[in-house]
Structures are given as C-alpha cells and as structure tokens.
C-alpha cells in the first residue's frame, strides 16, 4: 500500500501581456507561456489616432485617423492621447524675388508683393541698394532714414544718413522673470519650456516645480526625479526609487497614467534589491523607451553591478515590449550606465552604455562605449563597441553622432560614415537638414573660439565662424532657432548660444546656412555664459550658477541654480530635423522630420 499526499497550490498569475498576446500558466512546465491572439481579434493600439485596430501576426494594427479642419492655413495633427487638433501652419515661403509667402484658408500658400524697400539683392548700402518696388527688384539710391541694417533683440535698425548706415548703441537683454533656487534652498538644476512658454524646473531627487514662470508655482502631485515633455504633457521618472514612470498634466501636475515595471513584469523584479528608472527617450508620439535599472539579486545598494531592462510603452502607458538587456560590457561591475539615448525620425532607438569612473551621482562616463540599436517596438537591430567614452547621442538623416566621438556612424548598421573625421569631439552637436554643427570649441593653434558647420551628407567642412576678440569660454550648449532677419523675408535657422566677449556674457546668433553673424547681444547681470538654455515662443530661458558638471549624468546634479527668462520677440524654436535638446536626460532626444504643409 502506497500513501499518496498532495498539496493544492493556486495557479500563479502571469505577467500582463502586450497587445495581441496572452500569457497563461503551463502546469506541466510550471512556466508562463505567451501566445499570439488570432488574426482579426480586436485590440487596443494605445493610440487615439489609430482606428479599427485588429491583431495581425501578433501586432495591433489599424488605420490612421484623418484630421482636416477645412482650413489650409493650419496644420492638422492627431495627438495619440487627445485625437485631432489643429495648430498654425509654418509660414508660407516666398520666391526670393520680391514675392513673399501668404496663406489663403481655402487654397493654402500663395504669393504677395513684398513691402517696398525690402532688400532683394547683394547691394545693401546707403549709396546703392537692391530693393523691392511694386513687387520687382530694382537698384536705387536710398534716401536718408532708409532702413539699412536689421534690428536685433538688443539693437534698433540702422538708418541711412548720407552714405553712412548709423545704428543705435546695443543694450543688454533683460529678463522678465527670475527664479533663484539657491535663495529657496532647492536643488533645481534643469528646465523644460512648453509650447506656450510655461517653464518646468526639475531637480535630482526633488519634486518637479511646474509652471514656475506663471503667476503661481504649482507642485506636481506625483514627484519625479527627472522629467521631459511628451504629447504636450510632463513625463517624470520615479521618486522615491520604485521603477515607475508617470505622465502628468503640465499645469496641475495631476497624473494621466503611471507605469510600474514590478507590477507589469514581476518576473523581472524577482530577487532584485531595488528597481528604478535610468533614462527615458521619445521614439514616436505613441512610442516611449523607458530604461529601468536594478541592483542584481544578492547584492546590496553599494554594489557597482547593474542590470537593465528596456520597456517600450504606448501613448497610454501600455506595454508594447519588455526585455532584459544583456552584454559582456553590461555584466562588468563598474556601474555601466546609459549615458546616451536618442531616436530617429522613424522611431528606431539608439542607446550608448559606458562604464562609470566614479561612485555616486553625478556620474562621469568612461570608455569603451556599447552602442545598441532597436526598432520602434524594441526589437534588437545591431550592437557594437567603440573605443570612445560614452556620451549623449544625436541623429540626423541616418547619421548617428556621439558627443565624445570624432567619427559619425550610420544608423543603419553602426559603421563609419566615409573617412571624414572631425578635428575634435562633436560635443553637444545640433543639425539642420543641410549641416551638422558641433559644439563651439577653442582652436589652440590660433587662440580663438569658433563654431563650424559641416555639410550633409558627406560631412565636409562648409563654414567657420570665429569669435574674434572673445577671451571665452563659449558655452557648449547651443540651440537652433528660427529668426526673421529682415521684415518681409522668410525666417532663417540660426545657431543660438552664449559666451564671454571682452566686456562680459553675450547672447549670439549665427546663420546655420553659411556661418554669417546675425546678432550679438550683451546679457544683463551675468558673470558667466549660460550653462543651459532652452527656447520658448519669443523667449530664451537660461540657467547659471550650477556647481557641478554639465557633461556628467545627471548634469548639474544637486546644484541650486538660477533661472531667467529673456523676452526675444520674433524668436522661435527651429523647424529642423534636430532642434538641439542636449543637456539632460529629461529632454526628448528625438529626430523630428522637417514639418511642412
């Protein structure tokens, strides 16, 4: 006689599957088994712009919602969270021959005569000038008081007096709003500017301060270590460390959704000492890359060993995919860290991992660099190891740029782009559709700071702008802006930055097309160039007074910086593939395609 005994245990829950997949527990293998839903099964695409979604080969697919408000002078877009919206369309282009762009709500872009007196040719002096008259370009001897030089943010237009173009003296740009974190004892060291000009100040391990430039500062109801803008909302990482990411209303701070990795994938979290957010990266309006970091099982919080998980989320915080990242470089216990995260115009993701040279934040990257590429759904594409130190990434027109490298790589396979190398590290580069512009740098051979443009696609040297007479330094942080130099002419893309001339801090703008100077303006009540800056509509917000490095991660951690907003009427963020959002993991690092009609 054999006595049999058994114990009845409940069937364990399986982790939440992604769309078009189900997960059930197999009692034979005692594991969760994931299977695809049959084709034609209705599914939730996690995107309000997708209609009639059904499962197809394990993917949730549907048709795009068509948005049209019937007005040809607006751009109709679909927000994955809110549906159809309309925004003002970009300015209509002129023909460059005394015809300026105009817009008719029924037919769209048209041409109209440029205002009389608009420059139209190479002659722009006070004895002879090529100007528009009744829609045609003609050479004339301008009269006294003729506008011969454009206005700038700090200087009125030049006027002809005889043969001389006289200009008023330049005055310093003055802020209309200041927030000094040091005076309030707050470790705020990063900023985000919303599309309406609202300002969000962020600190490492302190809550976000929302709409600080408004009449009443608003505290976030869900705290975030670091934040970024996505779908017109504030996306914040966890605080305290808990492996969460939340999407918050930009003004009130109330959460739209919160994703918790330990809840969605308890199999990932099992045995880990601590699970927390490492980096965020925008991939598409309905695709977000969330890199989670953890101390491996059996280690304490003082370990330098790390484990990483890449999760792709949709616009509503739903999980598209999740995977543990594995590589020999990531297995080394030297605090490997994702120092660079960026995505291209089709939504593919690129991550740069490197070892950390110190203990405790802020983190200083070392070499070598592990580059990893993924599709917009998180499927691995390629990986390679490079000898340079890890750093922030930028992407333009299929070219991958690492701030500490002198070689551009192809996003297709990570291989070098031709034989062209840069004379020094790229730094926090920005890029238009025609040029890559590395950070300003000092040329030791001539003792001069300079800004250089390299033509795409071959990255050949195109132009150089020298900061003559400037002792420096010139700040590495630059942005691309849209600026109309002459009334009646189309806006041009300029490189905007700050530096020190012989008299003090200056705000400068240089043409991204040919490196010509657009304007220079003194900055009031400043001792150094801006350590960080962002553009808003008709404004620039600068940060200074930070006490830690800007090239570490997180940049300027624990600093109590000063923030100031300077009104610059007519200045707009540029409509370019890479607008320049370097400086911190809170910024989206996404290559947007050039938007048109």
UniProtKB/TrEMBL annotation:
Question: Where are stretches of biased composition, namely Basic and acidic residues?
Answer: 586-597
Task: Mention any Pfam family matching this sequence.
Answer: Dicty_CTDC
Region Disordered, annotated ranges: 574-597
Please give the name of this protein: Tenascin-X
Organism from which the protein derives: Corallococcus carmarthensis
The UniProt entry, under InterPro entries, shows: S_mold_repeat (IPR001673)
